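Weekly modeling sync, notes
Attendees: S.R. (lead), two postdocs, one rotation student

Agenda item 3: backlog of single-chain predictions. S.R. asked that every request posted to the team notebook include the full sequence so nobody has to chase files. The rotation student volunteered to paste the first one in as an example of the format we agreed on. Action items at the bottom.

Example entry:
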Amino acid sequence: MAKQLSSILVIFLLLPLGIRQQPDTQPQALRQFDLLTASSGWVQINQRIFWTEDSGQSWQEITPVLSVEDHLLDVFFLDSNHGWVLFRSSESSGTQSYHLAGTSTHGQTWYTEEIPIQGNGISTVLSDTVQMVWTSPQNGWIAFKHFNGTNFNSGTLLTTSDGGRGWQQSPMPVTGKLLVRDTEQGIVIRGPTGSQVFRTMNSGATWEEIGPADLAYQADIALFLPGHNSDRSTLYLVEVDPASFIQLYLSNDFGTTWSLQDQLALKLTSASLTSPGTNAEEFVATIPDSTLILAVVDGRLEIKENRDSLSASITEVDMAGPSSGWGKWVYGKCSKASASCSSETRLLHTNDGGLTWNNVILPGVEADLLTKTYTMTDNNLTAGDAASGMNTSILIGHGFDICEIPSIAQMKTWWDNSPYEAVNLYIGGSARACPNSLLSAAFLEQLSAQGWKFIPTWVGPQAPCTGYSSRFSYNVTTAYNQGAAEANSAAGTLSVLGLTNPDQSDSIVYYDMEYYGTDTTCRNAANAFMNGWVSQLHSLGITAGVYGSTLCSTGLSDFWSITHRPDAIWPARWYHNSPDGYFDPDASVWGLGSCLTDSMWAEHQRIRQYEGTHNETWGTLTLAIDNDVLDGIVAVPNTTPYVTSILLADPSPTSAASVDFTVNFSEPVTGVDTSTPFADLTLVTTGLSGASITAVSGSQDSFTVTVDTGAGSGTIRLDMIDDGSIQDLGGNPLEGGFTSGETYMVEKIGPQVAADFDGDGDTDISVYRPSNGYWYAYGQTAVWWGLSTDRPVPGDYDADG
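Predicted structure, as returned to the notebook:
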């Protein structure tokens, strides 16, 4: 049951227009913008807000005065007079609080009040990923995303119906773009899977999943609530399936029922779509990395071609009508060779529905272009690989995590243009939100060939005191066994993805353990579960990692002291603020708080998630990511060559003087000796004498080895020796020898009985037993003694047969 909250502190201040008491030290960045009419709107640049009435020809600053401890989180203007600014304050004690500044005088004066939040504590429940929507001066909604990994997406909703003096708090099933109809009815879209739509009809007290039943899982969706609609019950939903189509759905009852209105057959490189702004009057969107403009006109879809090629790099669009709108143009480029990056941002304006765009002169900027340049030290951008295993390595550099792995082409774009060298892989688990259907051994080999290294992540059951649907037991014995079972499942998946040795050893996997509080019983269960996870992975020869909280008395700080300590950690400790998130070349794995000191997991054992989910653009591709800086262990595919089999090429048992073996490798190799002394190969025999390798032929991944079977009866097996000479085409040496090939049964005895009948010094008779079980006595020209199941002895035959 949602509770009605009273404001902890309400201060009505008449604040003059002003700027922050301390200038911004970060590079200038365009954080937010909103075009309310064809010519008027506002922009946020760093911590300052500016207003224009003439399409950006002139600007007036309307920022409320904030202290140096305050950080601006979100801005919303209902009209030219009524606006709100949400900001966070940090105290010297480390506590944080959230505040709302409001104006009804176009920013000439502001009032400020504190936002009350109940729960486990602001610092542990909420992040700075916030969205605020007001539908009237009295009715406002604020959605906070919780601190969690990109696989998880839950939040807390605050609503007010009295202008912010009283707030009602409730949980949110997902966080994403928020659309609000009135005091009670709202919709949130996206979530971690990208195609979820949830609706509340009671100010967030309860939620239900809605939307067309046939939405494609991987599709990108945009939901549009037309601002000019009188009763605001009409919803448009645009679905983009990159492989085949764009579809338009209509609901006239705020999402209860849907009808397919229009469909266009269109193949795209990605499903990404810029959504219209919250206040937008019309639906006009760009499709990043393409020059197409998508519009909804009179309930039908229209595709137009941008004429100046600028739309391909537009990442956000806000339309004040079918013709007028603003777009955020972003292009990022990195050179790994020179360890430098740059990012350019422009604000563009269109008067023809996106067919052409023009630069808007931003306030406080000498040019109409915001540029950020980064220079990394060798320890940041350059991969400092120190191999800790055939399938793991130490990476000192930058990475990102994302719920659904992008395509090969998208990853190539980011490898070529971004500072990142590692990406997480949500490989499985009962709590995994995104299926990552692209993942396969072949897929990862292609990404590895581009240069990527991997952070395999297992998202299994969470702590029993959380609200997640999949949870492990409070019972410590059961929890331990559940942790071990998850380790077995993760190891099997690593093997299928080609991230282990053939025997499923030698890799790393991180368990995603979300924050679960400081309850003692719950902590004991989590510790037991982690003990089982680590212990079982160690028994399988796999390095055990864990993602978790850096807060005291929970998560990673507890796992330092358990019996089976994890080998590597992936702490989540953010210090940037979504949606202000950005790549930081100076991010560090150190300084994680008093309960996770720099002496813990200090030997290349850390990956730090320093920023929550936000959009970043490199090249012309925008992705929603979390940022990571690494001085830790990552996985690489098993690309070292190895012998897959040594097979018999002839029948067995055999009496032949020579036989062939077929040696098969996992991939084409070079360096196999094809002439004496055949140092790569050796024979293992029993009961034979004089057996030897006589010839080796073949190429690529298959070779034929011919063997002289020698004398006597017994067995013969061919083994491969790892002497360092055999390599794959990339120069990777053979991974160990091979001693488990097939074995020939050799059955021949002779000469057991011998005689020289004609006095020429030669043996005239020898005894031979082939595989049919009969003994033969052979002379130089004929069979002297016939078939017998008994072995012949001298005297059983004579010279005349």
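Discussion: group reviewed the output briefly. The chain has a mean pLDDT of 84.
Action items: rotation student to repeat for the remaining queue; S.R. to check formatting next week.
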